[in-house]
Design the sequence.
DNA sequence: GATAGTGTTAGGGA
DNA sequence: ATCCCTAACACTAT
């Protein structure tokens, strides 16, 4: 559930299920996901308060709470939100339950506990404290090109560096590099202007299309790597073998035929 | 039973 | 300091 397109969909889900509602009660079922604030303080900030809007920055969902500040939700690798109506069963790994006066509640589920629930009074300060770079979808070509020129090391870890560009992770950087014809291990410094342009366009296109298709890999247009993102699968563009390699400590999947090392 | 996995960060070595 | 790599976190699916 966790890269930019997924979090954007979470934001939309949050808006349709929680906006303008008042939080009656916050049930913290596993305090390990609460970060940067005590459980009583967080409850104090949220209970009886109205949710007025939501926004996303990178992989972070920020829900504006009437007057006070922002509830921050991060989903790690396995987090998601689900509206639970009265009497319905809640997700197995629900860590926090936000109850509304009408009886329904919004469950924050996070199996691996890699996500977090937090609080901030100031979006700017939060961004700085978390060292979050500009959001990937809001970055124009000039900023994107400059970011790559300033970076060292392989391009894939650079794209996943949340302090340089916020929102991309292991999966979508593979798709971006695949559609741009760039090998994940290439040094950012060696990218031509043409490559950078391709990557910038691919990033915008891929995130937008993924959001439109509910971030479901099997609903993506033909030619996308994601549905074939496993070792030994066939490249959807050339029919070659999809390969994997460890780049920056994560497993990258790519087609060595379509993606050149330059 | 062993292993990998959509993320992030602390700790260690160069 | 600063960059880069690895391990660790917790839990499930294969
Ligand atoms: Zn190919």
Sequence:
């Amino acid at each position: 559930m966790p890269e930019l397109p997924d979090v954007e969909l979470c934001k939309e889900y949050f808006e349709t299920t929680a906006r303008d509602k008042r939080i009656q009660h916050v049930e913290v079922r596993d305090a390990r996901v609460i970060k940067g604030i005590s459980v009583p303080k967080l409850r104090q900030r949220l209970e009886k308060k109205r949710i007025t809007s939501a926004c996303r920055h990178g992989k972070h969902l920020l829900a504006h709470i009437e007057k006070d500040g922002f509830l921050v939700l991060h989903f790690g690798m396995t987090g998601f939100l689900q509206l639970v109506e009265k009497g319905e069963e809640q997700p197995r790994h629900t860590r926090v339950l936000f109850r509304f006066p009408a009886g329904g509640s919004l469950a924050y589920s996070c199996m691996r506990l890699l996500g977090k629930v937090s609080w901030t009074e100031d979006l700017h300060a939060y961004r700085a404290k978390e060292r979050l770079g500009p959001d990937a979808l809001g970055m124009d070509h000039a900023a994107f090109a400059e970011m790559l020129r300033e970076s060292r090391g392989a391009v894939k870890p650079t794209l996943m560096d949340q302090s340089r560009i916020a929102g991309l992770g292991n999966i979508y950087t593979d798709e971006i590099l695949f559609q741009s014809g760039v090998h994940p291990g290439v040094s950012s410094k060696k990218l031509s202007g043409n490559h950078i342009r391709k990557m910038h366009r691919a990033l915008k296109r891929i995130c937008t299309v993924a959001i439109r298709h509910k971030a479901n890999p099997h609903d993506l247009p033909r030619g996308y790597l994601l549905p074939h993102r496993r070792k030994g699968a066939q490249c959807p563009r050339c029919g070659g073998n999809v390969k994997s390699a460890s780049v920056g400590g994560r497993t990258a999947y790519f087609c060595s035929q379509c993606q050149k090392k330059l």
